[in-house]
Structures are given as structure tokens and as C-alpha cells.
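RECORD TYPE: inverse folding
INPUT: C-alpha cells
STRUCTURE:
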């Protein structure tokens, strides 16, 4: 054995290396349980709400406080949801690797830490935005952690219940600037509620076996594929209508209408093709993929709506 090889083996065998890997894995779990991807998507809509209300001239402090406070609240909401859903997650292939399912995180400490963060988030919104924004954040948290958690276990309409807190970041961002809920705020809220229903119905379609295994009621199980497709298409059309209404009331210009409208109409076309699609799961996956593009287009169009013609 050469000296160099012996040295490499000695370094590899250091007990501290195993401890370092455990710390890295624990840190990864602490982040993963808060669903950072979901937080980022909601921060995108919150920023769009801020920029829509300010017509592109929001103060950096207000924007940072809104996104920071909202992120802290959403982090706890996701952690609490993950903890409450650990049985359900264990029955579904896509979620059975989550930290609370595997038991790799101490639940009480994690919940307390993220709960303290959520409290700080509400205080940040109240101090640097306004009380209305803080109230929206607090209500969205209760709606998601309590009402949605109950609804998803008992009703096929749970997606609609979950869509309300899902759309809250956008209206919170709007209210952080305006300090009130008005017509454009309600239209933006409606657009995001309508976006979420086809987005999540699509997941329920192409993962229908997992939802049945977890004993979760879905619209597909309750009303069948045709009714589910019809509701998805109606919501897609409603989203396009909500964007058009934002233009009618003068909240965004025709360029923004074009950006969001083209994306929405393209999504609607994909949805309509579902009535003749021979493979429902493949169609639903495409609906899901296109929905991500639509959300990005909607957020950008709304954010730039006040500065583009």
C-alpha cells in the first residue's frame, strides 16, 4: 500500500466525516419539509401583487418585508401540513420519502421552530406592510393548516378549499402596497383560484392510484372523468376572463393581456383536447406541465401590467 493511498483511506475513515454527512442530511430535511419550491411559486405571485398595486414602483423595503414575512408563514404552513399528512404521504409513492414519513426529523422541535418563524412573519407584515396584510397571512395559515387539512380527507371539493390560501399571497402582496382590497385585487385572487383547480385536478388524475391508496376523495372519484375535465376547462376559460377583466378595469394594459391571454388560451386548448384524449393520465401530465408556464406568464404579465401599454 502506498503512503498516498493509506492517507486517503485514513481521511475517509475519520469519524467526523460521518457526523458531517448526518448534519448535511438533517439540514436538507429541515429545508425540504418547508417545500421551498412551493414557497418560491407563492412568492412569485406575492411579488406580482405588489407590483400590480404599485404599478411597478414598489419600495424595496415593502417588497422585501412582504416576501420575507409571507415566506415565514408559508414555511410553517407547509411543515404543519407535512406533519399532519404523514400517514397520507406514506401511502403515496411521490411523498413517502418526506422527512416526517421517514422519521428523520424531530417533529416537536421542527414545528416549534417554524411556528416561531410564522409568528415573526406575521409581525414583519404588520410592522413593515400593514395590519390587513398580516391578517391575510394569518387567515391563510389557519385556512390551509386547519380547514384544508380537514376538507382533503372528507370532501372531493377540497381543492377549492385549498385554492383560497393558495391565492392569498397575491392579494397579500397587493394589500401590502394599497392597504385595501379592491376590484383588481379580487380579480387577481379569482384568477389564481381558477388556475389552481385545473393544476391540482391534473395531479389527481395522473396519480389517481396513489390518491385511492391514501383514501383521499377526489373529484375524479366522486364525479368521474368527464365532469372533472369539464370543471378544468371551465376554470381555464374563467382564468382568461379574469385577466381580460383586469384589462377592462385598467389594472393592466393590452400587452399584459396578450401575454397572459395567449398562455391561458393555449392551456384551454390543451384542456379541450382532453375530451378526446385516449390516455387520460398522459393528457393530465401535459395539463400540469403547461400550468406551470401559465402561472409564470400570469405573474409576469400582472407584475408588468402597470408599466406596459
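DESIGNED SEQUENCE:
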Amino acid at each position: 500500500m502506498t503512503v498516498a493511498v493509506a492517507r486517503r483511506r485514513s481521511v475517509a475513515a475519520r469519524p467526523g466525516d460521518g457526523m458531517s454527512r448526518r448534519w448535511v442530511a438533517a439540514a436538507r430535511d429541515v429545508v425540504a419539509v418547508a417545500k421551498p419550491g412551493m414557497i418560491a411559486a407563492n412568492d412569485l405571485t406575492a411579488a406580482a401583487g405588489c407590483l400590480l398595486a404599485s404599478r411597478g414602483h414598489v419600495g424595496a423595503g415593502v417588497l422585501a418585508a412582504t416576501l420575507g414575512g409571507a415566506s415565514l408563514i408559508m414555511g410553517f404552513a407547509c411543515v404543519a401540513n407535512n406533519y399532519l399528512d404523514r400517514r397520507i404521504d406514506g401511502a403515496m409513492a411521490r411523498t413517502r420519502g418526506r422527512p416526517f414519513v421517514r422519521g428523520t426529523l424531530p417533529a416537536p422541535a421542527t414545528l416549534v421552530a417554524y411556528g416561531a418563524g410564522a409568528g415573526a412573519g406575521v409581525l414583519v407584515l404588520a410592522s413593515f406592510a400593514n395590519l390587513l396584510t398580516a391578517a391575510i397571512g394569518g387567515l391563510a395559515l389557519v385556512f390551509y393548516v386547519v380547514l384544508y387539512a380537514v376538507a382533503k380527507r372528507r370532501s372531493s371539493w377540497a381543492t377549492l378549499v385549498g385554492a383560497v390560501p393558495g391565492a392569498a399571497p397575491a392579494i397579500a402582496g397587493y394589500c401590502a402596497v394599497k392597504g385595501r382590497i379592491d376590484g383588481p385585487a379580487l380579480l387577481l385572487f379569482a384568477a389564481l383560484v381558477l388556475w389552481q383547480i385545473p393544476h391540482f385536478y391534473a395531479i389527481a388524475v395522473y396519480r389517481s392510484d396513489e390518491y385511492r391508496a391514501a383514501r383521499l376523495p377526489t373529484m375524479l372519484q366522486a364525479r368521474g372523468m368527464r365532469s372533472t375535465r369539464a370543471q378544468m376547462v371551465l376554470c381555464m376559460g374563467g382564468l382568461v376572463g379574469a385577466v381580460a377583466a383586469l384589462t377592462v378595469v385598467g389594472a393592466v394594459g393590452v400587452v399584459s393581456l396578450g401575454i397572459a391571454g395567449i398562455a391561458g388560451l393555449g392551456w384551454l386548448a390543451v384542456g379541450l383536447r382532453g375530451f378526446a384524449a385516449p390516455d387520460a393520465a398522459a393528457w393530465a401530465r401535459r395539463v400540469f406541465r403547461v400550468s406551470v408556464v401559465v402561472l409564470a406568464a400570469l405573474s409576469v404579465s400582472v407584475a408588468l401590467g402597470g408599466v406596459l401599454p
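NOTES: Residues 18-181 form a domain with the Tetracycline Repressor; domain 2 fold (CATH 1.10.357.140).
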